[in-house]
TrEMBL record:
Family annotation (InterPro entries): HATC_C_dom, RNaseH-like_sf, ZnF_BED_domain_contain
Native organism: Phytophthora sojae (strain P6497) (Soybean stem and root rot agent)
GO cellular component, one term: nucleus
Superkingdom of source: Eukaryota
Pfam families: Dimer_Tnp_hAT
Protein name: HAT C-terminal dimerisation domain-containing protein
Occurrences of domain HAT C-terminal dimerisation (ranges): 317-383
Record keyword Flavoprotein present: no
Localization terms from the record: Nucleus
Amino acid sequence: MVVDPGMKSLFWSSLATGTEQHTAQFMAAQLERVIAEIHRETRALVVGVLTDNAPNMASAWELLENKLPVFGGDIFKKILFMKKIKEDALSIVHFVREHHALLDQFRHLQRTQIPPDQARHALVIPVATRWYTAHACLRSVLHNRAILEDLFQSSRHAHLMERYNAPATVRSKLLFVKELIGSDFFWQNLAFAVAMVVPVIEALRELESDGVPTMSRNTRRRVRAEFYGFVNERWKFVHTNAISIAYLLDPNTDPDGFIDSDEADSISQACAFAVRTGMLDRLEITRAQLNRWLYAFADEKRSYTEEDKEKNAGAFPRHWWRSHAKQANAKIGYKALNLLASYVFSIPTSSASSERAWSIFDYIHTKKRNRLSTTKVEMLAFVYINSAAKTNVKLDLARLQLYPEAEEHDIEVNNHEDTLVM
C-alpha cells in the first residue's frame, strides 16, 4: 500500500509467500523489491516503510535502513515530527483523563455543545502493541479541538483551572497543555499527521475485517467494470447517427441532455446526411445555412417555457414539423428542417418489422408446404402482409401461427371479398 498525504492511497501489490520462511532477510528483500519497483515505474522516492512489530520485521527494518535511505519500523518512533505530535497529543489526553473534575466538565461540554445526531469522541490513550491506536489518540484530540479550547481558555472555567496550580509539577503540566491548545501550529501539525495516517488505517481495517473479505472488494470492482462494459457496448450500438439527429429534431427533448460534444456531432451528422440524400440540392440551400438553422433550433428548444413544453407534449415529431412548416409565419429554415425530420423519423427504431416479415415467411413455408416454389411463397407473403393494409381486418399473427386452419379466422376474412383466405 503506497501512502502519501497529497494523494489517494494506492494498492501496489501483494505476495503469496507459500512455503518461504519469513526470515528478516527474506522480508527485507521483498520490501526492497517493491521499493525499487515504485521508483522505477513512478520515479517517486519511498522514504518510509511501515509494518507490524514482529521480531523478524524489526530485523528487516535494520537491514533496510542500513542499505536504503528509508525509515523503517514504528513510524511514530522513527519520524521525529510524528513522535513529537504524538507526545504532545498524549500530554493533553493524560492531563484531562487523570483529573476527574476536568474529565467530567469535558464530557459535560461535549453533551451540551455537540448535537445528539453527531458523534462524540472520547479522548483515547494509545496501546503500545497496537500502533493504530496512536492514530485514534491523535484523531480524538483533533475532533475535540473546540471543546478543549473552551475548557482550557475560556474565563468561565478559570475557577476550575485554579485547582491545578499546585503542586509545581501539576502546574507545569497545565501550562504546557494550555500552550499546546492555544497554538495554531500544533493544530496544523496534528491535522497533517492524522491525514497522513488515515489511508493506512483504512487499508488495515479492511484487511482485518471478518465480515467483508478483501477479495470481495476486487470482485465488486470487476463486476462493476463488467457491467460498465455491457452498458458502454450497448450505448455504442444504439448511439447511431439517426438516433442523435432524431433526438436533436424532437421538440420534446432537451438539448442539455447531450453529453460532451454530442450536440455538435449530431448537427454535423445531420448536415452530412442532408448532403448524401441530395436534400440541399432539392431545396437549393447550402450546408452552412442548414448548419445555422440546426444550431438555432437547438437554442430555441432551450428557451422553451413550461407552457411551450405543454403544447408540444405528446406530439409526434413528424406531425409537429409538418404543422409548423406550413404556418404562414413559419421561421426561416423550418421548411428545410421539416424535410430533414421527415427523412429521419421515417427510419424504424428497430428491426422488428423486418423480423416480423421473416416470421411470416416461416408461417407460410411450413413443413406441409415445403413444395411451394420461391415465387409462390413470395406471392403468399405479399398478400398476407398487405391484406391488412387494404382492409380493416386485424390479424392475430400469433394465433394464426398456432391455429392456421381456425374457422373463426376463415369466417372473419371471408367477409371481405378482396382478401385471400389462407
